[in-house]
């Protein structure tokens, strides 16, 4: 079944157009709207990413950034696929193309080494090879900034499972580059996570997750051999609470199967929030199910809408 699952997750989706990067010393072309594929070389390795530029983002009406003006900087959301995943199905799973068009931001979806990310204590080929995936993401953002004026104070990262673990690692190791992160169905596997400055965090997790158990431990279901013993999700959240200087006790609101915890009093107007869904498994709530072997997404909330609203509320404060 693992081979069938991997084949399903690795099946590529159609890319609207393909754009090569500018030659060295050449003036960059204006950004192409739609979903375009790009390749860069990082550490001697060819890496691929998808760039989503909404068709109407360059129109200056209704408060939308004008891509023709270098002083008009745009927010960017980095979307990280899960293990065995691809940039294409990461965009599909969370409806990110539609969200970008609706909320007027750019999406960057990088591809991990052999469909995996080195988040520290997980996962797969990328971890075994010791790839510096923090460098990969930052170099990808620099490549995007060569053609689109990225707002350095509105750069965000999200992802599910292994991708969510890398989103956490970005917060741990590169807090100066991100305003907020939003891991889904993930936990911190980065040893000694100590964000260098306050950074906002939204964590979303199903309490019935058997792949990355919310309370930690050995998963009772895994798509990789010899899975790690995961630390509790609250341990990683605690690292961000300490870095952000938040109040020790959260405000808690529960409605049905959804519980929303919010910590206040954080430094630099940062925020830490935790959303748990009592009956949800290892999935992107409100998203698309990529394979029958995966847990069905919870319908109790729309994770993408929740995440984009959270990102919109928080900017980086140098």
Explain briefly what this protein structure is.
With 318 residues, this protein is α/β, with parallel strands linked by helices.
What keywords describe this structure?
8 helices, 11-stranded mixed β-sheet, 318 residues, single chain, disordered N terminus, alpha/beta, 11 strands
Structure write-up:
The chain has helices at 2-10, 87-94, 96-103, 124-129, 133-145, 162-173, 233-244, 303-312, and strands at 17-18, 34-42, 45-53, 74-80, 106-110, 150-160, 180-184, 200-206, 251-255, 258-263, 272-277. It contains 8 helices and 11 strands. The longest helix has 13 residues, at 133-145. By secondary structure, the chain is of the alpha/beta class. 25% of the residues lie in helices and 23% in strands. It is globular, with a radius of gyration of 18 Å. Strands 1-2-3-5-4-6-7-8-11-10-9 form an 11-stranded mixed beta sheet, sandwiched between helices.
Return the string of H and E elements.
Answer: HEEEEHHEHHEHEEHEEEH
Radius of gyration: 18 Å
Q: What strand line-up does the widest sheet have?
A: 1-2-3-5-4-6-7-8-11-10-9
Shape: globular
SS element count, helices: 8
**E-strand count:** 11
Low-pLDDT segments: 1-28
What is the rounded distance between the termini? 47 Å
| Helicity range | 10-25%
């Amino acid at each position: 079944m693992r081979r069938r699952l991997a084949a399903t997750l690795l099946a590529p989706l159609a890319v609207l157009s393909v754009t090569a990067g500018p030659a060295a010393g050449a003036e960059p072309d204006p950004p192409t709207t739609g979903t375009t594929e790009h390749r860069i070389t990082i550490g001697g390795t060819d890496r691929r990413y998808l760039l989503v530029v909404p068709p109407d983002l360059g129109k200056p009406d209704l408060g939308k950034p004008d891509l023709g003006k270098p002083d008009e900087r745009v927010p960017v959301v980095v979307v990280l696929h899960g293990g065995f995943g691809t940039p294409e199905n990461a965009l599909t799973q969370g409806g990110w193309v539609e969200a970008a068009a609706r909320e007027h931001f750019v999406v960057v979806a990088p591809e991990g080494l052999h469909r995996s990310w080195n988040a520290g204590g997980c996962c797969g080929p990328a971890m075994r090879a010791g790839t510096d995936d923090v460098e990969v993401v930052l170099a990808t953002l620099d490549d995007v900034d060569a053609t689109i004026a990225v707002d350095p104070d509105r750069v965000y990262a999200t992802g599910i499972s292994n991708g969510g673990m890398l989103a956490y690692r970005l917060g741990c190791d590169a807090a100066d580059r991100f305003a907020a992160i939003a891991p889904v169905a993930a936990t911190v596997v980065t040893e000694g996570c100590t964000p260098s400055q306050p950074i906002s965090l939204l964590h979303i997790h199903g309490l019935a997750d058997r792949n990355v158990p919310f309370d930690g431990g050995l998963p009772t279901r895994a798509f990789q051999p010899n899975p790690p013993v995961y630390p509790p999700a609250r341990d990683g959240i605690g690292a961000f609470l300490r870095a952000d200087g938040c109040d020790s006790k959260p405000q808690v609101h529960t409605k049905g199967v959804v519980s929303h915890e919010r910590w206040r009093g954080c430094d630099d107007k940062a925020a830490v929030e935790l959303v748990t869904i009592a009956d949800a498994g290892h999935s992107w709530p409100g998203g698309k199910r990529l394979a029958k072997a995966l847990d069905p997404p919870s319908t109790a909330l729309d994770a993408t809408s929740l995440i984009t609203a959270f990102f919109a509320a928080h900017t980086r404060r140098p």
